[in-house]
Amino acid sequence: MKRNPGEADALGHELADARISGLYRDHAPEILGYALRRSGGTDDAADVVAETFLIAWRRLDEVPLVEEARLWLYGRARRVLANRDRSARRRDRLAERLRNELRQQLPAQQAQEGSGLLEALDALGEADRELLMLIGWEELTPRQAARVLGVSPLAARSRLHRARRRLRARLAEKRAGNLPNTEIEVEEAR
Amino acid sequence: MRTEKIELELSAANPVAKPALAALDLAASEAALAEALIAEPALAGETGAPGRVPRRPRSSLLLIATGATVAVAVAIFFLAGGRSTHSPAPAYGAELVRFAESSPLLLLEGPGWRVRSIGQEHGQGRMEFGVASPATPEAHTYKTHTEHGVALHRDGLRRVELFWWDRGGILKLLLHPRVDRVPGRRFTIAMPALGTKVHIDTRAESSPIYGGPGHHQMEAIWKEDGRVLLLNASVPSLAAFRERLGWLRRVDAQTWLDAMPAKVVKAADYGAAVREMLQGIPLPPGFDPAKIPDLGLTTDRYQVGAAVGGAVACAWFRHWGKARASQDVAATKEAEHVLLESKSQWPIFREMSKEGAYPATVVEYAKAMPSGRRYGRPLLSAVDEGLGCTGDGFPLRPGGKAG
User: Fold this and answer.
1) Best CA proximity match to B287, nearest among B310, B262, B266, B265
2) What residues pair up with B227 in beta bridges, in sequence order?
């Protein structure tokens, strides 16, 4: 990768370039998957990936090494998703290129049909839902999910137990044709 | 509903399955990432390279063979021994000079310091400089614990190591997921040297043994001619490290070659050295000596010996494996006998045994031949890992990939 010519510390930049390239090659698909599962579509996901890796670039010194880097990136992507302003779409070339590639390579997201699990998941509070998705979809361990969420492993395990119980309850209600909206408000308020 | 069932349902509801992501080609977007980063501000708080240059041992056997410390695991090549009094011929052909220029032509010209050893393979290398008499009163003995026992080192302060990698090599190291990385390593000091800027890490200790009072391992890293170079020294102070750094001089090819100890095989002599080392070694049926590559690098004789003896040993282990599978008792016994005797009978192994444990390790593997297992593992797997047979182009099983 090339950077602005004339900048001091060429070696530092070369090593930084190598690091960010490695992070992108190793983890971009995972971060993209994370974003796709939580955003409104491929365009939004491309924005999240672009923003996440630009943050990683700016804070490269903070990105942990090896396996921990993935969890750090998940955590950043989570914040990007939480803070994003959909009206302010990124104009940079990475986001544009990603959007184009994803439109070509990924079929349009189809609404999931069938078990009612997604609706039950939507009915949970954000914290419960995110924990369950990190473990169920991103295939993290509870300890890894705890790192992403910034909570202790013990808290994550405890929360996971409760989240599963709530999901089972929501799913049973959904399948019984009775999904109360009041519960959503209670969960969100916590 | 049981926990397992809800997990299965959740997994099945994943709207973006892993195979779909794995099939994505994001290579083009990686280039776009580079373009996007150009417009971004520089790294916040950057004072040097953001990560340390990791260290990678080549194989456990080479570490055993050379008695290198595990802590200083970059030591892909390692030899003990001093400078020979025998001087090489002063004139070198153009081709030899060209080979020399494939190495960084740097020498440490401190008072009494000499090249002790050099090891190279494609894209990376190591030189060790040493001084015969104590350079500082702080020189002392320290221990390292290796997987095969305790190694004693008495001259940590009398040694400076220079490592280099080409661009591809350093990228591989940086991106290698299992490299030895030390959290907190930072090249925080920048200073001019050799006409460029070098970055210094004053706390490069990768093991507590280097952290004693008045004894610090420091590293400087810089780039020149498309290579990344790293100087490593154990010193009592930053001033002492800077002094050693200041002793580095760029020299011409002939001066550099003149400085090599006699035990170093010059690049142009590599092929001849291979042929000479094969003399007196029994070869297994079908072994083609021409398969031992002429690396054309200036490197220690010990390393050439390991390449030659290792290739023949690998071929014998392969021969043994085939014989054992076909229940050819005579061929099995022949291979066992040849390898058990290799340390005492093969001329190059006899020579190498004075400097390192490579031949002894081959014999250790040979001793495991009757049982076919070493430490509970299939012997051929252990041999392949230890000697690097497949990687060096001598696979131990028919159809095994080379290279």
Assistant:
1) B310
2) B166, B224
Within B59-177, residue ranges assigned H as helices are 60-66, 94-100, 167-175
Q: How far is CA B113 from the centre of its chain?
A: 23
Residue pLDDT, tens place only, B103-128:
888 999 998 899 988 888 767 788 99
> What confidence tens digit (pLDDT) does each residue in B40-61 have?
543 333 323 322 222 222 332 2
Report CA-CA distances (Å) from A12 to A160, B251, B294. 42, 26, 35
Using a CB–CB cutoff of 8 Å, tell me whether B51 touches chain A.
yes
Q: What pLDDT does residue A3 have?
A: 32
Cα–Cα distances in angstroms (integers) from residue A135 to residues A140, A146, A160, B307, in the given order: 5, 10, 9, 48
Q: When comparing pLDDT for B157 and B38, which is higher? A: B157
Q: Are B121 and B297 in contact (CB under 8 A)?
A: yes
Give how far B209 is from chain A: nearest CA, Å. 24
Tokens of B46: 């950057």
Chain A CA closest to residue B181 = A65
pLDDT at position B26, please? 73
- Would you say A141 and A33 are in contact if contact means Cβ atoms under 8 Å apart? no
CA distances from B218 to B6, B158, B234, B238 (A): 54, 14, 6, 8
Chain A's closest residue to B10, CA to CA, is A136
Record: contact A94-B33, CB cut-off 8 A: yes
Render pLDDT for B126-136 as a digit per residue (tens, 0 to 9). 899 988 665 44
Helix (H) / strand (E) element for B219: namely strand B216-224
DSSP state of B283: P
Residue-by-residue DSSP string for chain A: ----TT-S-HHHHHHHHHHHHHHHHHHHHHHHHHHHHHSSSHHHHHHHHHHHHHHHHHTGGGSPSTHHHHHHHHHHHHHHHHH--TTS---SHHHHHHHHHHHHHSPPPPPP-SSSHHHHHHTS-HHHHHHHHHHHTS---HHHHHHHHTS-HHHHHHHHHHHHHHHHHHHHHHHTT---SHHHHHHHH-
Q: What is the pLDDT of residue A170?
A: 87
3-class state of residue B231 by DSSP: strand
Is residue A141 within 8 angstroms of chain B, CB to CB?
A: no
Who's near B364: CB < 8 A, 6+ residues apart?
none
Q: Is B221 close to A11, i.e. CB distance below 8 A? A: yes
pLDDT > 50? residue B325: yes
CB contact under 8 A, A33 and B1: no
Mutate one of B4, B8, B16, B46 to test the A interface: name it (highest A CB count within 10 A).
B16
pLDDT beneath 70, residues of chain A: 1-17, 40, 66, 85-94, 105-115, 178-190
CB pairs under 8 A between A and B: 181
Mention every residue, 6+ apart, whose C-beta is less than 8 A from residue B325: none
Of all residues in chain B, the percent with pLDDT exceeding 90 is 23
